[in-house]
Amino acid sequence: MARPDRSAERREELLPVVTQAFAELGYRRTTTAELARRCGVQETILYRLWPDKKAMFIAAIGQVFAHSTRTWEVLLGSAEERAGAGGRLLEHEAEHHGEHHLYRIVFAGLSETDDPDVRAALRRMYRGFHRFVRERLAEHVPARRPAAPIDGELAAWALLGLGTIANVGRELGVLDARSRRRLFIELGRLLFDHGAG
User: Fold this and answer.
1) Residue 93: burial class (beta carbons within 10 Å; 0-12, 13-18, 19+)
2) Which pLDDT tens digit goes with each residue over 45-87?
3) Which stretches of 85-197 are DSSP H helices?
4) What angle is formed at CA 53 by the lines to CA 131 and CA 9, rounded to 5 degrees?
5) Spatial distance between the Cα atoms of 168 and 183, rounded to a whole number of angstroms
6) Is there a contact between 152 and 46 (Cβ–Cβ < 8 Å)?
7) Smallest Cα–Cα separation from 40: which of 14, 19, 1?
8) How far apart are CA 102 and CA 23, in angstroms?
């Protein structure tokens, strides 16, 4: 009797290690030999799970999205608890945004957008993040209705932009932790309140 195919389970087990390696080393400096070493397997095992290094990198881009949205869903709780979701998300991101350095995968991917597969993976990721944030904006009820609302689609992109700026600031050392926190709390709350509903 043939053994069951555990490829999907094995990919799921190894993907966090692969993702962390890409986050630390970037796309170009990460070798499949290094990925195999960190995963504690032979390179041939990785090639049974993914066709090539690019496929591993694209899976890591997907992992950035999955990791973030899983964290946010747990934070948001049940549908009944979502009334103050915007504030909870902003508080969480003000404290924890970028701490795992997964944004480095996105930055590395941006230098590879001539590759249509990498470009498509990044587009899926950003569109997924936008959809998630837009849905939270639609659920958000501001303390008081702002005089000048912002289109929710644009507010969602602007909130994603805050995350990018916070990551650049962290990476280059031009924004300290206090400034990054203020970015999320002050500007984020403004965008949430003005882009809600």
Assistant:
1) buried
2) 999 999 999 999 999 999 999 999 999 888 887 655 655 677 8
3) 85-96, 103-110, 116-139, 152-172, 177-182, 189-195
4) 70
5) 13
6) no
7) 14
8) 5
